[in-house]
Amino acid sequence: MKRNIFAAVLVTLTLSLAACSFDAEGAKDVLNTSKDEFKDVLNVDMPTIKPEDAEKIKDAVNTSKDTLTDVAGKISSAVSSSGEKVEAAPEDASQGQIDAIAAAKKYLEGAGFSKQALIDKLTEEIADKFKAEDAKFAVSFLESISFVDWKEQAAKAAKQYLSGSSFTKEALIEKLTSEGFSSEEAEYGASQAGL
Fold first, then answer.
1. Count of beta carbons in the 10 Å neighbourhood of residue 145
2. Is this structure's pTM higher than 0.70?
C-alpha cells in the first residue's frame, strides 16, 4: 500500500514537472523536498532520489514537454478573410478552411444546428458559399477541439422551436430528427427544453 502511494505521488510529481523547465538538480531538489513533506503526512519512509534517477526524470519531463509543444504548435490563431480572429485553427489550414471555421463558430453561437444542417448552411448560404470540403473540415475540426456538443445544439434548437410554436415531445423529437439530429440528440434536446 505504501509503495502504491509513493508510486502515485512520484507519477503525479513527474507529470507536474512536465509543465516546468528544471535541470536534473532542480528536479532532484523538488522531489526530495516533496518526499520530506509526504513523509510527514503519510508517515512513510521514502527513498532519496539519486542523481541518475533525477536525470531519468528530467529526460521524461523534457520528452513530455516536447510532445506537448509539438501538439500546441499545430493549432494556432488565424484571421479569417472578414478580419475575425479564429483562436484555434490548424497551422496548415487553407484560408477557405479558416473562413469556414469562423463562420461555423458564428452560426453555432446563434441558432441550434445539427452537424448536417451546419454543413448545409455553410455550403448554401449566399454570403458564405463555402466548398463542401471546407465546410466539412470546419465542422470536423470544431468537433475535434470539443467546441461543439451536438446534444446541446439539439437542446438549443428545441428551445427555439418551442418559443415559436407548441409541440408534443414526440412531434419535437420528429422535428429535430428531420433537421439532422440523431434520435439520442433529439431526445436529449426535447428533455432539456422541458418536455
1. 13
2. no
